[in-house]
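Consider a concrete sample entry:
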Amino acid sequence: MGLTITTKKVKYADLLFGLFYLLSWPQRCLTKMTIDLESYDCVQFESFFVSDTELVSIMARPRSDVVSRADCKIQLRAQPNRKFNIYLHDIYIRDCGVKLEFFENVHRINPTKTFGCQTSPGVLFSTRSNFLIIKLSKASSAATRYRIQIELATNKGPKLGTNVYNRSKNRSLTITALCTILLITWLVI
C-alpha cells in the first residue's frame, strides 16, 4: 500500500513538472535583439533576421559620444509567410526635420508609414510582407530634439504593447514559484 502512494506521488510530481514545462516553455525561449539607429547598426549591409521568438527593440536617441548621422537605414527580414507587427512605444520628435519612415520594398519608394514632428506614442501597425526597411532621416546631423523606441516582432511572435520581455520573465518566475510550492506541498502530504 505504501508503494502505491509513493507511485501516485511520483506520478503527480511528473504531472506537475510537465505542466510547469508546458506553461513556461514559450517564455524561456523569448530573446531580445536591440538595434540602435545612432550606432554602427546603420552600416550593416545585410538584413537583420527576426525569428518568431524574438522581440526587437529599435531605438534612436541623440548621443554625445558618437558623431551623429543624417540618415540611418536598417533592413529586417523574417521567415516567408510572416509579417511584422510594429509598436511605437515611445516617440518624441520635436525637430520637424526628423522623420521615421517604413518601407516594404527594396527600392525605398513610397513609404508605407511616415512619422515626424508631433507624432504621439502608442501607434500599433502591421506590414504586409516579411521584408521591412526602417529609415531615420534628419535634415541636419545636429538635430537633438527626438527620441524613438520601437518594439517589433513577427505576427507569430510575442505580443507587443507593454514591455513584453520583462513581463514574460516575471510570468515565468511566477509559474515556477507556483509549481514549486504545489510540488513541495504534495510531497510533504
Residues 32-157 form a domain with the Jelly Rolls fold (CATH 2.60.120.290). The CA atoms of residues 98 and 138 lie 4 Å apart.
